[in-house]
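Chain X:
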Amino acid sequence: MESTCLRTSTLTKSKDKKGNTIINQYTLFKDLGEGGFALVKLAKCENRSYVIIKKAVKIFKKEVLRRKREFINSSEGRMIVKNALEDVYKEIDIIRNLDHPNILKVHEIIDNDESSKLYLVLDYCEKGALLDWVPETRRFKCSWDSSSINEGLFKRILIQLTQGLFYLHSNKILHCDLKPQNIVLSQDYMVKIADFGQALRMGSNDTVNKTHGTYQFMSPESVAAKGSFNGKSAEVWALGVTMYSFVYKVLPFDGENLHDLMQSIENNPVIFPAQPPVTRDIRRILELLLDKNPRSRITLEQLLQDPWLTS
């Protein structure tokens, strides 16, 4: 893959008349979200035709990332110390080469050695996340659509997610943290997979040796794994949990603690609530995605050939 992402080491900072910060050609003027290590701001800039366009700018605090350290064992049995900034650079190395309509595009990386911050310029998706998690109720909410689920919208979102994942897998990349909060939508319902902080490059046999991502979206075989498991199939399971959550606004598996959650994922059957009512085809697709046996679980290739989904 040839990178279409700009990498800029020059950084100029100023303020406009309203006090908004200007980073190079980008004026930052609204908070979109904040995590433990990064802030996302809405930005505007002029393109070559002097048209004002909007972007999202993800801002990392380098020093905070350097202080967060992880001790891991290498394949040779040696202890290695890594910091979170190294993980961000690994993420950048993966995403800077991605170019697909259903993958959140990184347009520019602004990284100046003397700056305490690192900037990623991304597509701006007006509708925000597919779903937001509400810890108090342990339910998801949809901030961009209050209507009940319908086949057309289900198919439109699922086919785009499938195409995005198929592109990643074809390039030997696993997202490793697919969930509704890491999927964003544009104004015209274009679905984009975002946040590649857990992403991995696969080996030749598509297997991984360690579970990654959010526990509630881990597959039964990854929870029970004593050795390696197929990363592609585990990601299909996460797609199933995501689409189940989109339909019912709850997780298919949960628990009072991590042990109970893992036991539930590995041993409990999938329960389909009576409300909201869904069509036979939506339930059929969810059952195929949430097949606990990775050998018989539907593949992305099979999904892309499903007559109902592609009609």
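Chain Y:
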Amino acid sequence: MKVAVLGAGAMGSLIGAHFYKGGAEVTLIDPFAALVEKINRDGLKMDFNGKQEVVKLKAVLTPQEVGVVDVVVVLVKGMFTRSAMQNAKCLFGDKTVAISFQNGVGNVDIMKEFLPDEKIGNGTLNISSRPLALGEIAGNPGKGVAIHFCNETLDKSGLWVEIEEVLNKSGLVTEYSTDTNVMVWSKLLVNSCVNLTCGITRVNMGVLWDHPDGASIQEMIARELVAVANAKGIKMDWDTAWNAYVKDLLPNVREHYPSATQDIINKKATEVDFLNGAVVRGGLETGIPTPVNDVIVKLSHILQDTYDKQFGTNK
């Protein structure tokens, strides 16, 4: 199986490494030349669940250096999905499939501009990964990986079976689910609760939760999200979704700084429009008020648009 991973950030590198460990031929694709050079020279240094290893991955700057593959994994940030898919057309043959493991809601809709539903998988990563240094990452297995079909009448067969087998062989618990929208919005609940709130408050997930106001604002975010999901016909049960985050996931990732928080630390644009922004758009579509998510979106826009003007900035 030939796999190309669009985006060699912390999560892209982690997923690429596990495809490789499961027996696939993997190429990471990323425009950051220093990162590509470091991975090719020294391998990817990975600390996953306390186990340290070096994974000898291949990395390139452009899709044109790779050619047709069997599986394209999309792990660029949401604002780059369309341009990444446009630039990656050379990776796709008649049988190639693509899987989005990205945060938020809206990326798969963009992918449908380029591929039919039956060639798109929509994945949720209930795991964590963070950069330690150039070409070095650390992660936690959390609750593993779930993959869903955009065409929910599609049977799991052929290449899709092989994808599941390869990732499970690598040690990353992976399974297919028919509850696509519920799973995606359940993951959106987690990301909307912590990605921007941790960044705005400058703390990790555990510290935010331990503060009574931090726990309270997360619940308000989540209740708006669940109301919007149900108004859209996505049957989310509040207790199930909330407990999956608070009781099952959070205790395992308390020290984690979510991806958008890492973006804020590094003064980069965030995926807020695909996270809390997706809740706000859903609220506008369904008539459900989402004032807390709306404030998070607006504060995040201000924050990322004014990095060079904030106090403490060297001038």
